[in-house]
Specification:
mainly beta, signal, seven-stranded mixed β-sheet, 25% strand, DUF2155
Length: 275
């Protein structure tokens, strides 16, 4: 009896194990109400970031972007941000679908929009809090089936939200204050040491003016001689000095040169005339 039961149950157990292996893996995911995209204008090189609600259509240039679902993983799972997006190229004559499929924020080039002027890719999903269990693949799968709200062709007559180009922010230039001497040029070793002038501390308050202390009430100039006004003194004129006078009867004789000494036959002066 026991052998018969094992013989019957063994194929059933094998079938159940095969069915369990054939089922896709299940993991937790978060459905978010908003998707964050980045748009590139290839002519101007300008990139803008914009948020789009699920099933809302926005227009970036000639492209109309409509996200149908935006999924993320909780922190306990491997990170994966993906969304099913529909992109239509609209001009004055017609509208055609240029992209319909899954986008992945970690791999923008895996499945992206092909357009000569504009480019759009998924950056993030936000706003979701409810965690649900659904079959997902461990890696990004571009061949996953589309969601139930996806549309196969552009919807005529819808009015999208038009994105306005953002002006670039002007760089802020800091003006140095008057107390800042600015950068000091490096010194040349050949010119010797450079003396730096002492700079005033930044933010130091100026000194208050000196306070004059007056004389007590009732005190006259005699009690406080320092407070009495003094008369300015006139400068003294220098006295002229008289010229030196000569004694009476003294006459100044002109200086005469000494007589030339006598010379002998050979032209030498005599010894007597030298002393």
């Amino acid at each position: 009896m026991r052998k018969l039961s094992l013989t019957v149950l063994r194929p059933a157990l094998a079938l159940a194990a095969g069915l369990a292996a054939a089922l896709p893996a299940r993991a937790d995911e978060i459905r978010n109400p908003n998707a964050v995209f980045a748009g590139l204008d290839k002519i101007t090189g300008r990139i803008i970031s914009f948020d789009v609600a699920i099933d809302e259509t926005v227009q970036f240039g000639t492209l109309q972007i409509t996200p149908r679902v935006c999924l993320t993983r909780p922190q306990t799972e491997a990170p994966l941000t993906e969304g099913f997006v529909e992109v239509d190229d609209i001009d004055a004559k017609s509208a055609k679908r240029v992209f319909s499929g899954w986008m992945f924020s970690a791999s923008p080039g895996l499945h992206g929009v092909e357009h000569p002027v504009y480019d759009v890719w998924l950056k993030d999903c936000k706003g979701g809090k409810d965690v649900v269990a659904s079959p997902v693949s461990p890696a990004p799968n571009v061949n996953a089936p589309p969601p139930a709200n996806a549309q196969a062709a552009p919807t005529p007559g819808r009015k999208p939200r038009i994105l306005k180009p953002q002006e670039p922010e002007e760089p802020k230039v800091e003006v140095p204050s008057a107390a800042d001497p600015g950068p000091v040029a490096p010194a040349d070793p050949a010119q010797g040491p450079v003396e730096l002038a002492p700079s005033a501390p930044v933010g130091a308050a100026p000194l208050p003016p000196p306070v004059e202390v007056g004389a007590p009430p009732g005190a006259g100039p005699a009690a406080n001689p320092a407070a009495a006004p003094s008369k300015p003194k006139k400068p003294k004129k220098p006295k002229p000095q008289p010229a030196p006078q000569q004694a009476p009867g003294a006459e100044r004789l002109p200086l005469q040169a000494p007589p030339e000494p006598r010379r002998d036959r050979d032209g030498f002066p005599g010894i007597r005339d030298l002393f």
